[in-house]
Structures are given as structure tokens and as C-alpha cells.
Amino acid sequence: MKKLLLFLLINMITLLSYSQQFDSRLEKHFGKDKLIFWQKNYPDSLGYYQFVLDNAVLIMDESIVKQRLGGEQVSEIEIPNFDEVIKNHKLLDIFSLGIEIKPDTYQYIKVKNEPYYLYVKPGRYLWNKYQAGKQN
């Protein structure tokens, strides 16, 4: 009986500690309660949003983007502590920046006062890549 109780206690502690660990960027945007709900009921949603954080945006050099854009005007965004973000892309949080991921449109967004652009991939592309990765 004691062994069974100990086994159950260890399993519960392991489960609780596992279920409480989320990417801080997701937790900041969605809140822990919603992430726990998704983990339990919609694990695909949780996985997809994590995939979006890590794959939706590329940081590109201004000289390359200007060639692609020609004279096309794009929106501009200010990113706090961008000097740190450029060193560690995991610090880039697309959700906190308020960038809308459009279903079928690739977007370039100029980083204010920096020689860089964000290249935002479309929602359908991201979903297809996420689905393809799950099958591997």
C-alpha cells in the first residue's frame, strides 16, 4: 500500500511539474490557465503556437530586403532591446509585438532605427509546416 501511494505521489508531482512549464512568451500572452487548458484539451493548439513563436518571423538585413521590395512602402515597428534580440532570436515575441499573421500574405516590416526587417510568414504556410513536422 505504501509503495502504491508513493508511486502515485511521484507520478502526480511529475505530471504537475511537467504541465506547469511553458514558454514564457506564450505564458505572457495567453496566461498560464489558458495554456494548461490547451495542454489538456487541445495539445495541437499549444504546439502550433509554440511553432509560430519559433518559426513565423525571420530577421533580414536591410540591403537584401530593399532589393526585393524595390520602392514598395512597408510598415515600421519598434522593438525594445533589439540589440539583444538580434543576438538571441528566442527573445523575439511576435505576439507581444502585435503583428498580425495574415493567412496568405508574406510581410516585410521595417525595424525602426535599425538596418533590419522582419519577414513574417503567412498563417497557412506555418500551419502546413507545423502539420508536416508532426508527421516526421
List keywords for this structure.
136 residues, alpha+beta, 4-stranded mixed sheet, 4 strands
Kindly state the percentage of residues in helix.
Answer: 40-55%
Number of domains: 1
Overall spatial form: elongated
Strand order across the largest sheet? 1-4-3-2
**Main pleated-sheet profile:** 4 strands, mixed
- The residue-averaged pLDDT reads 87
Provide the β-strand percentage band: 5-15%
- What Rg do the Cα atoms give? 19 Å
Based on helices, strands and strand pairing, what is the structural class?
A: alpha+beta
How many helical elements? 7
From N to C, what is the helix and strand string? HHHHEHEHEEH
How many beta-strand segments? 4
Low-confidence stretches: none
Distance, first to last CA: 42 Å
Please write out the topology.
Elements: H1 2-19, H2 24-30, H3 32-41, H4 43-55, E1 57-61, H5 62-69, E2 76-77, H6 82-85, E3 107-111, E4 116-120, H7 123-135
Parallel strand pairs: 2-3
Antiparallel strand pairs: 1-4, 3-4
Helix pairs in contact: 2-3, 3-4
Give an overview in words.
This protein is an alpha+beta fold and 136 residues long. It has one domain. The protein has seven helices and four strands. The protein has a four-stranded mixed β-sheet with strand order 1-4-3-2. Helix 6 links the parallel strand 2 and strand 3. The N and C termini lie far apart (42 Å).
Short overview:
By secondary structure, the chain is of the alpha+beta class.
